[in-house]
Amino acid sequence: MKKFFLSFFFCTICFLGYSFSAQAVDYPKPQGYVSDYAEVISEVKEQELNATLQKLEQKTGKEVAVLTVSSLEGLTVDQYANEIFEKWGIGKKGEDNGVLFLVAIDDKKMRLEVGYGLEGELTDAGTKLILENDVKPYFKDSNYEAGIESGVNKIAAILQGEEVLPVETASPNEGSVGGFVAVLFSLLFGVFKFIFGIGFIIIILIIIRSRRGGPGIFWGGPGVGGGSGSSGGGFGGFGGGSSGGGGSSSSW
Prior knowledge:
Strand order of the largest sheet: 1-2-3-4-5
Helix content: 40-55%
Strand content: 5-15%
Shape: globular
Radius of gyration: 20 Å
Oligomer: single chain
Number of strands: 5
Order of helices and strands: HEHEHEEHHHHE
Structural class: alpha/beta
Number of helices: 7
């Protein structure tokens, strides 16, 4: 039991640091199925990849997003991918059938982040094979366009049932521990995001109003407005899916 509380305390401290660093990053917005912020894909190839992924969604309902950035802004590739996946909502809401292919050029890091609904088709072991065998050889030669195209084609083939990845095996203990850790991290992420996001803003507004001698934000006055807006994208945006935390990362 002592080890459990020590582990819980350690996770809490990690998430405190993660929450501050993750919210300080200016995350890019989706420009299409392919968002080439690092500018490593030619315009012609980007159009081809967008067409491929659009056809994939029309045929299967599954959404794949490709994002290239120059830097991860001090985050790990896993953290950055998870934040992007959540903010973009890749995959259909309720189905969580999305995939994010993230490439950070200057950091030489890449990740395939997989939604809950596709973890049976794109396993952790399988996504690792894609990165190592289909992408990395090109990236080592700085041929990022070819590597991204190779990875996208492999993912599309698997999601359309044209290819099948190896099945992962795990011991019962490994599965149960992994599931517990995933639930714990998800819970902590939600709590800290509220505390250091909306909750922090509300506290600041309360302090400002109290110093001005005005009414609290919950009584009278305009206060904090409700309502939510959706960010529009040229391609219509993704469907509101969420990440399952599955997938793999690699470097070159």
